[in-house]
Amino acid sequence: MRNDSVLVSDCNFKQRGAYALVREDKYDDACKRKFRFVKNLNLSGLMSRLATFAVVAILAFLLLTLYPFYPLYISVILALVLGALAFEFPGLALLLAVLLSVFAAMYQDPYLGLTFFVVFIIFASVGQSWIELALIASSLIFLSPSLMLVAPLAIVPTIVAGLHLHRTGAVKIGAFSAVAVFLLGWASGVAKAGLILVPFPASNYVPKPIPIDWSFGAFLPDFGVFTSPTIGAYFTTLTTNLSDVRLYAVIAGWAISGYLTAILVTKWKKMFHLPPSIVGAVPALAASVFAFAAASPLDLGIGFIGVAVAAVAYSLAQSVFAGPGLGVFRMIEDLVPGGIQGKYSLLVGAPVCEERNLLVEQLFHEGIKSKIPCFLLTSDLDFAKSIHAKFGEKLTVLVANPRADSMSGKNIVPISTGIQNLTTLNIELVKSVRGAGTSGGRVCLDVLSDILLTHKALTTRKWVTDLVPRLDEWGFTAIGTFNPVLHAAEESKGLPDLFKGYLEIFDRDFAGKMRKVIVVRKMTDLQFNESELILDKETLRKKEAKGGLRGRLAR
What we know:
Blueprint: H1 5-10, H2 24-64, H3 72-85, H4 90-108, H5 110-126, H6 130-140, H7 156-164, H8 167-187, E1 192-193, E2 196-197, H9 230-242, H10 245-265, H11 274-292, H12 297-320, E3 345-349, H13 354-369, E4 374-378, H14 381-391, E5 396-400, E6 412-415, H15 422-434, E7 441-446, H16 448-473, E8 476-482, H17 489-492, E9 501-510, E10 513-523, E11 533-534, H18 537-541, H19 549-553
Parallel strand pairs: 3-8, 3-9, 4-5, 4-7, 5-6, 7-8
Antiparallel strand pairs: 1-2, 9-10, 10-11
Helix pairs in contact: 2-3, 2-4, 2-6, 3-4, 4-5, 4-6, 5-8, 6-7, 6-8, 7-8, 7-10, 7-11, 7-12, 8-10, 10-11, 11-12
């Protein structure tokens, strides 16, 4: 164990001073458990990275062959290179794949290339993670002439987005996929791009073969065409299309399909996700039928069959790859669509980390915004200071720490006996909470690990089973937090049984990096999303990702 100093140091025991009662053997046991946890993640992490490589390489190859320009061997080499780049920067790899496809479109026709470049700009600005970019790119590959028979399958990525992304992401991918398919279908001069009819397509595109004496610079057009009078005539048909209200009905249908699937997947979890997928696809298919009468029975059949196959494949892949969800956690509604209701008890199992603290702050935020009483009971001085600095007098902070007297300020309640004397702890907590009246509110018990370590499992269970029902009786939502790494499994496994809901935060290898993910383990009487979502502290802070473009492309 002592030889694994790197892994031991990675165990986040910065609060060890507060856990002075933890014996050295318990400390070693906790680190050994984390060491075994990290070892078990290695295989999952390798599978996740190989899956990322395969997805990006295949999508890159299909995008590079969307329009004739790159010889087959060059397409294969570039796809493999981009797949290798995806080990570290999957988002950047997909952006490069689409950009290289723009060059191929530019070789075919300058105006087609210009349209594709506009799609690329929107593509780069809309996709916030490599998974979103991959789903949008998947919609584009069905514009290939060799795939025109199965072009209705372009709706499938939107449904997959609904299955595995939050509602906002699914709507975004549905709407942008429809716009991208329409624009490229129009520029390619086709009257129908899968489920989307193009009433007035551009008519002067004729595919050119791959250059015999191939060179990368062969895509460069005569830029004079962009200033010639013909450009106005070329884009006249696009203006005519954009004035057709039916087009917006189709785009809305795709967006609604993504949204509906994301809503239904949290309610209907059985049968390999088939019910939410089939019902979710109806708005997009119906919009194509009623707005343009463009979808034939064959198109509808291909669309529904593709959606059904994708739903089953998604369910099977989800059970094989225990990787994080395809979305990023932004708010509690991403996991619990209806939110956490009043008079509910929720347990959060997580190592001490900034993401956990930000999650606790988010659980307080709505209550504080609604001006209902909120209380935090914690033994962590640093956390008490930071959260009090953020919320001020709006949040009452009870600090159960021998050094609590060092803190001052309104709504700071020092409990200098710490968690040694549970009677004193209860008196101070009950006095503060009962004094707030019966208007409801939220109480966070950020002392469960301390109590469990000091007073053991039996006393901890008695304390929780006595306190939580009383908080419920007074109209409060109780939020408990504990650190599973600090406890043996037999000591902590009964703790979630004392709460109605249980959220777990843990480390998962994602694109070659250890990321914090959050998942619902239990949520009694509430509908919830079973997917794992990435906890990104910059997203939780609602600020720009740290590291700028690099941070975004590595997602």
